[in-house]
Amino acid sequence: MSSITAGSHEHHDAHAAHGQGGVGHFLGTYVFSRDHKIIGIQFLFSTLIWFLIGGLLALGIRWQLAWPWQDMPVIGRMLFAGEGGQISPEFYTILFTMHATIMIFFVIIPILAGAFGNYLIPLMIGADDMAFPTLNMLSYWFMWPAFLAIGASFFVEGGAAKAGWTSYPPLSLTDLNGQTLWLIGLTFVGVSSMMGSVNYMTTIIQMRAPGMTMFRLPMTIWAMFITAILQAFALPVLTAAGFMQLMDRTIGTGFFIPEGWSANNAPLASGGGQPLLWQHLFWFYSHPAVYIMILPAMGMVSDIIACFSRKPLFGYKPMVYSIAGIAGLGFIVWGHHMFVSGMNPALGMTFMVSTMMIALPSAIKTFNWLGTVWGGQIQFTTPMLYALSFVAMFIIGGLSGIFMAATPVDIFIHDTYFIVAHFHYVLFAGTAMGVFGAIYFWYPKMFGRMMNETAGKIHFFFTFLFLNGTFFTMHILGAGGFPRRLADPYHYQTFAHLQPLNVFMTWCAIGMVAVQVIFALNFFLSMFFGPKAGRNPWHANGLEWAAPSPPGHGNFDFQPVIYRGPYEYNSPEVDTDYYPQNEPPPEPKSESGEETEPPPQPPAE
Amino acid sequence: MGKFWSLIFLLVPILGVACFALAPVYNHWLPSDVSQHGHTIDHLFYFILWLTGAVFIATEVVLFWFLWRYDGKRKGHVNYTHGSHSLEIIWTILPAATLLFIAIYQMNAWAESKIRNPAAGPDGILGTADDMPPTLEVTGRQFEWRLRYPGKNGQLGDSDDIYIVNDLHLPVNEEILIYLKSDDVLHSFFLPNLRVKQDAVPGMKIPVWFRATEKGTYDIVCAELCGWGHYKMKGQLTIESRAEYDEWLDKKYREQTATVGPQLASQGDGE
Ligand SMILES: [Cu+2]
Ligand SMILES: [Cu+2]
């Protein structure tokens, strides 16, 4: 870990927050750090730990679906010794509720925005830190009340939340304290995200290095920027809805409770509310959240693919416009989660049309990735394999979305495993694979050492194989009508014959979790034993590669000036196959060009 | 190694197609459809399956081919380009047109299943004399389906109603109209073989209609999480001839009046 801020001492400390050695120094440097890189790495470690927890919960779900009511070895005995290792139906509802909650709110969103957004934004735009370093530090520490609330909820009476990650009332109102802790936890996650998003927007708008015009930003930064805007506009709605549900639970308001309703034979509050209102508010956030959970991965994957194709990104501007298009349309499609909810079916028709159209920018992006690979000089490194698998898998997740956008088909497949297959292809096979790629790609920058390539490729091979074994088959279950969230589907004659397929999927899921040991070992051992990386091990163009690995406090040991976009690979202007953004053009400039002044802008391509 | 990894990516379309080709052979596929409107839904499913299947195979094979062909080991000439205007236009307009076509193509099937409410009768307006009376009322409740058929007087919502739990009988080849309600939390009334799914929402009375075309017994599944016992909220649907149905309903009516008698009147309050 000491390598993380190597060089911070010889560098001028712009933020002057460090104590004079000892405990105060340690706390200021590694714990309550305001350095965006430390904060990014804190987010990375925290989210990876939650990733492990979320994955183990998923194994619990898989166990029950393969061998219902049978004692679960090892993990079962640890978790529910009382039942002798058997998963109870109550605990099954906790399993899928908390698996989704953790993966979405504690892993995917914070690993993309919190870890990579934090780490990469200042480095890629040539800033010495975020615009608001203290706010940035708080955005990480506001995750901790959420970690504690959700962690503690497993131990309160009645256990953790069990109304699904969507928390639909009235069921979520009848739940015990676990649900209250869930709502509190989510509120803190929201506050943390909001702090991050304000910071990212300001930093990207205000703190770009000289010459870094908006259309010279790498796709990663564009994606982070638009994601931050999405967060800022969508999140208040979820927060408000969360407070409404909290008040319904605690002080007897009735936002989501209809007239004359009573739970568990107890007389209930005023009523006059509407259960569907929650669904509208929840999905108004949570559909844009789907893009919050994929756009940054798309951006990072674009950068990785261009780098290892040794070719400029195909269609840079269409890529930017597609992200913007996804973000805009993303606000008017939330009703596709509610086609059979009792919402006016005519309204469903409108949401169907907007949902169909949002597939378009995704298609454009896919074609442009293919265009980037075409005619390149592909280097099959570990990050590239992950980035390519993102494309291959996102095609599946994108296409399966058309089925559920088609309202009549959705009548049949809604709440079946077809949906589960779809979002796992987008979020696991897509985003998580993209994140793995990003970790392998930027690890040398973060820790100054390379990860092991062979171990990385073995990790990729088995993860890729097992994830398809686990998730592709879910489409088949879904076509069979197999519903989600059932602790034991096999007592239905319609689904009894689907058990052997579930056994196969569970074995694949076990394999998938097991091979992550290779990743964990590679990740931690490389910190100490990996070969030294140097500034630019991949021969990439991005500005972050001009900084030392790892960069010291303040990031750059020179004033970066940007001369071109980030994708000039194999440019005819130079002999090397890469042309860093900060490298001055070959013809010597006149002496008047001081490096602190913005350089003359080259004419637009 | 580039060749090896290219082939791994080629496995995606090969195994993907194999998976979908083999599933129906081993009966891991859409449950048999015994409804009148179901075939339009299934048709649409197959239409989208073929369409997305073609795009899936095409894009994955192109990806494989590029990886195979442009393996960096060859050190070939790099196609230095920032994009192509005409390609962007082609691959924007083509998918846009296709998506728009699917959107319009499905509207009728959706309207048939969810918008053209037969309860409104021939004049299309609810609350007039030609309204279709409901066949029965179904109420979701943790964790069972409560059914309420009209009794001898044919009116739903009075003391004459017949109460049954989880055992739904319906006549074949007749338009069925169900009013769906919930007593406590959300449920979803899912008839896989009839391609029917509708959430039951507390405070709402939602019409559900369909026409069964084959006799037999089928599952009623709850498809919306309703608590720990969600998985066991199972009902059985029996589709039978009109005569069998009348006989069954008559038997239920007699059983109920024999055991419960007139006290039921106080329980069966209308709304
Ligand atoms: Cu959505
Ligand atoms: Cu249920």
Give a structural overview:
The complex is a heterodimer of chains A (605) and B (271). Chain A is mainly alpha-helical and 605 residues long. Chain A has helices at 22-31, 36-66, 75-79, 89-125, 133-141, 143-153, 171-174, 177-206, 219-250, 275-292, 295-309, 316-329, 345-373, 382-405, 407-413, 417-447, 453-479, 499-514, 516-529. Chain A has a domain at 31-275: Up-down Bundle (Cytochrome C Oxidase, Chain A), CATH 1.20.210. Chain A contains 19 helices and no strands. Chain B has a five-stranded mixed β-sheet with strand order 3-2-1-5-8. A five-stranded mixed β-sheet of chain B has the order 4-10-9-6-7, with helices on one face. The radius of gyration of chain B is 26 Å and the shape is elongated. The longest helix of chain B has 32 residues, at 38-69. Chain B has two domains: 2-71 and 89-114, no CATH class; 136-262, Immunoglobulin-like. The interface between A and B is large, with 109 and 95 residues. The structure holds copper (II) ion (2 copies).
Order of helices and strands of chain B: HHHHEEEEEEEEEEHH
The set of bound ligands, ions and cofactors reads: copper (II) ion
According to CATH, the fold-level topology of the domain at 31-275 in chain A is Cytochrome C Oxidase, Chain A
List how many beta strands of chain B DSSP finds. 10
Oligomer classification? heterodimer
Unreliable spans of chain A are: 1-19, 592-605
Distance between the termini of chain A: 43 Å
Strand order of the largest sheet of chain B: 3-2-1-5-8
Helix/strand-derived class of chain A?
mainly alpha
**Low-confidence blocks of residues of chain B:** 263-271
Biggest sheet architecture of chain A: none
CATH topology of the largest domain in chain B: Immunoglobulin-like
CATH uppermost class of the largest domain in chain B: Mainly Beta
